[in-house]
């Protein structure tokens, strides 16, 4: 979501349209050039308190014509129209993945935010259908604005300086380590593939915050005699992420549910082969430019890992096809679609 805002705002401003962008509240760093910030008024110190009290107050102070809420929650009552971005509704469609004590409250808040918004933006046709089904909202109130890959992920744009503990060859996963990401299927497939590959056999590098599954993945590898196969980095810097993409033998993305899957586009833009689950929005994003696999077939993941590590012709094809596919996803296109929604909503 941070990437979404940091890429979308400059892209909107670069269109040259007569639009003023104002950041309502927040205190992390300076806003992009051309954006002014309105200070955050008092509000109860929760997300709900911000949406119910602080954000409407900030919007009145700034005298805005429209509010764009970029991540799931929005003012439940607003004097001006609200455009809400919902990236996915995994929490609503699969609450079993979110066993938090107050998850029901979050889901209710998200649901009411969606229903109160004048219009919804989302990242894929898959998510458009999911949002419509989850919240009983007509498709005409939901517009798809696919995300893009930043220019600095382009092949050859980043010097290769890998984080400590990362040694080639390796497979890479980018994103929080969460139940829905289904990483155990890759661990099982990789451990079997390593027995068939010449040394040095690949490791699995995980770049993202651990949401409670990392220890199980290491235990799975340890049970097969190779605990050091799993390299957990946690959150990484943008420069480290670029290097990780460029140095990886492949991105592995076995997720069961994604509203878009930005790492897919970033990896393809980096010239990195992609192995991904045939699930949710993933086929929509990668087209025929990746190896798509059953998310439950560990044998299939084993075979694909062996292929991508040993077949130079396959790697070259995935690289070429991926670069061409990634070129279709630009933040300029995202901004143009978003601006069109702003204009339609503002005109009533």
Account of the protein in words:
This protein has 13 helices and 12 strands. It is of the alpha/beta class. The chain folds into 2 domains: 2-148 and 330-346, Glycogen Phosphorylase B (Rossmann fold), CATH 3.40.50.2000; 151-326, Glycogen Phosphorylase B (Rossmann fold, 3-Layer(aba) Sandwich), CATH 3.40.50. The chain has a 6-stranded parallel beta sheet, sandwiched between helices. A 4-stranded parallel beta sheet has the order 3-4-5-6, sandwiched between helices. It has a two-stranded parallel ribbon with strand order 1-2. Helix 6 (184-194) runs parallel beside helix 7 and helix 6 (184-194) crosses helix 11 (298-310). It is globular and about 65 Å long.
Mean pLDDT: 93
Largest beta sheet: strand ordering:
9-8-7-10-11-12
Number of domains: 2
| CATH top level label of the largest domain | Alpha Beta
CATH superfamily of the largest domain: Glycogen Phosphorylase B
What structural class do helix, strand and pairing data support? alpha/beta
The share of residues in helices is 40-55%
The end-to-end distance, rounded to whole angstroms, is: 27 Å
| Biggest β-sheet description | 6 strands, parallel
Order of helices and strands: HEEHEEHHEHEEHEHEHEHEHEHHH
Instruction: Write down the CATH topology of the largest domain.
Output: Rossmann fold
Q: Tell how many strands the DSSP assignment holds.
A: 12
What radius of gyration results from the CA coordinates?
A: 21 Å
Low confidence ranges = none
Backbone shape? globular
């Amino acid at each position: 979501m941070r990437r979404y805002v940091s890429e979308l705002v400059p892209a909107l401003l670069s269109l040259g349209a007569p639009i003023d962008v104002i950041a309502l509240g927040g205190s992390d760093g300076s806003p992009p050039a051309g954006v002014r910030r309105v200070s955050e008024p008092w509000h109860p110190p929760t997300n709900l308190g911000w949406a119910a009290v602080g954000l409407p107050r900030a919007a009145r102070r700034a005298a805005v014509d429209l509010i764009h809420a970029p991540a799931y929650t929005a003012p439940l009552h607003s004097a001006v129209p609200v455009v809400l971005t919902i990236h996915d509704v995994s929490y609503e469609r699969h609450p079993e993945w979110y066993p938090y004590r107050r998850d029901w409250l979050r889901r209710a808040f998200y649901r009411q935010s969606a229903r109160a918004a004048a219009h919804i933006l989302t990242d894929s046709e898959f998510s458009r259908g999911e949002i419509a089904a989850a919240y009983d909202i007509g498709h005409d109130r939901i517009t798809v604005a696919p995300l893009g890959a930043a220019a600095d992920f382009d092949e050859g744009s980043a010097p290769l300086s890998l984080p400590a503990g990362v040694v080639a060859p390796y497979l890479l996963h980018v994103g929080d380590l969460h139940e829905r990401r289904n990483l155990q299927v890759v661990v099982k497939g990789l451990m079997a593939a390593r027995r068939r590959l010449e040394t040095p056999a690949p490791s699995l590098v995980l770049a993202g915050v651990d949401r409670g599954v990392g220890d199980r993945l290491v235990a799975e590898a340890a049970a097969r005699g190779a605990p050091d196969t799993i390299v957990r980095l946690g959150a990484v810097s943008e420069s480290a992420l670029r290097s990780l993409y460029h140095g990886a033998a492949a991105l592995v993305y076995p997720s069961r549910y994604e509203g878009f899957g930005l790492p897919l586009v970033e990896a393809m833009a980096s010239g990195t082969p992609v192995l991904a689950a045939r699930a949710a929005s993933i086929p929509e994003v990668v087209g025929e430019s990746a190896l798509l696999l059953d998310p439950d077939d560990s044998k299939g993941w084993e075979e694909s890992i062996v292929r991508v590590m040993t077949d130079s012709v396959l790697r070259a094809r995935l690289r070429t096809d991926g670069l061409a596919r990634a070129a279709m996803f630009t933040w300029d296109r995202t901004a143009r679609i978003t601006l069109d929604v702003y204009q339609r909503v503002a005109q009533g």
